[in-house]
Amino acid sequence: MDVLGIDIGGSGIKGAIVNTKTGEFVSERFRIDTPQPAKPKAIAETIKVFVHEFKWKGNIGCGFPSVVQNGIIKTAANIDKSFIGVNANELFSNATKCTVKVFNDADAAGFAELTFSDVKSIKGLTIFLTIGTGIGSAFFKDGILIPNTELGHIYMKNGLVGEKYCSDAIRKQNDLDWKTWSTRFDEYLIYLENLFYPDLFIIGGGASKKIDKFQPYLTIRTPIQPSKLLNNAGIIGAALLAK
Ligand code: BGC
To answer: What is the DSSP string of 95-137?
Structure first.
């Protein structure tokens, strides 16, 4: 079954039609800058543009950069605050006349990773992190996804939350060289490993393609690897969850 997968991020909205059996794209990938301010109506209009672009009539899965419970947006760190309390399933379904289901973006990306990589057979705890505009997280315990963990919002010793200290956006905004950023990210990962004792970290999101730049500076004891699906995991996972 083909599903339109859309990954709504703080900076860009990306989508493609996904074959949910194979995880492959059966269309080109399409991207639009996230409208600013990222208010519900503006985002719903953008989703409509994807539907027109792909002449789509089937199901749609959206990854969204917030805690999402049964389609309801609960937090809004990198999206307009007026989203809090909105039933995004209803809003986007009404706007597009398609059945739309919305999930946390990191959970969606993590679900794709679990489905299409050998991570599903790993025993123990894997922490999957997406490093982009914010930091998203998903836990896999013995191959099962545990949703709505918000590790990007853990407070660091300097009083900043993790994503304000070492997201990819913070690296770019502050023009941090790789060594400086990696030292921050290392500190963040050490904090997580001392809290959760994971067996593996997987890095997704924009930073997954750049792991060679920062891995040499990490001093963590936990093994770390990039996402197999790299930056497309969010689109694929949203489609899988919505099928
Ligand atoms: C949000 C998470 C999201 C992450 C990545 C964070 O600011 O709180 O829900 O997964 O950004 O987009």
So the answer is: HHTS-EEEEEHHHHHHHHHHHHSGGGG--SEEEEEEESSSEEE
Pocket mutation for ligand 1, best pick of 150, 153, 155, 168 (most atoms within 8 Å of C-beta): 150
Nearest CA to ligand 1 atom 4: 136
**How many Å lie between the centroid of ligand 1 and the Cα of residue 121?**
26
**Domain extent for 210:** 122-227
**Assigned domain for 59 exists:** yes
Which pTM was predicted? 0.95
Distance of CA 152 from the midpoint of ligand 1 (Å) = 7
Residues 42 and 100 occupy one common structural domain: yes
Q: Could you tell me if 95 and 130 lie in one domain?
A: no
Across the chain, which distance is largest between two alpha carbons, in Å?
50
Q: Give 59-91 pLDDT, tens digit per residue.
A: 999 999 999 999 999 999 999 999 999 999 999
The predicted-structure confidence for 106-144, as pLDDT tens digits, reads as follows 999 999 999 999 998 999 999 999 999 999 999 999 999
* Domain count of the fold of the chain: 2
Give the closest residue (by CA) to ligand 1 atom 5: 136
Q: CA nearest 148: which of 162, 133, 137?
A: 137
CA distance 238 to 62: 5
Give the closest residue to 224 by CA, choosing from 212, 236, 237.
212
